[in-house]
Amino acid sequence: MEVDAQRLEARLPAPYRTELEATATGCSFVVGAPTWDDLAWHLLSVSRDLNTALILPTGPEADAFRQALGRISRQATSVAQGRPPEAT
pTM for the complete prediction? Predict the structure, then answer.
């Protein structure tokens, strides 16, 4: 994330993150949650609250996270347009 490590530390509970370290452009960390959807919801909320973008590495884990974001996006779009949510 492109956010100060101290701000992220204050917003993202320790059980969800480890290896938090400052970088030249913000901070990096390792995260976890019971499911990919839980993780996506939580990090979207943190990203919104801190007004910063998520930057994901490449790899299978990032792909699973992106798929969870896609499910959330489709559901939010359905609700916003007054349609029933799509089956997942």
Answer: 0.75
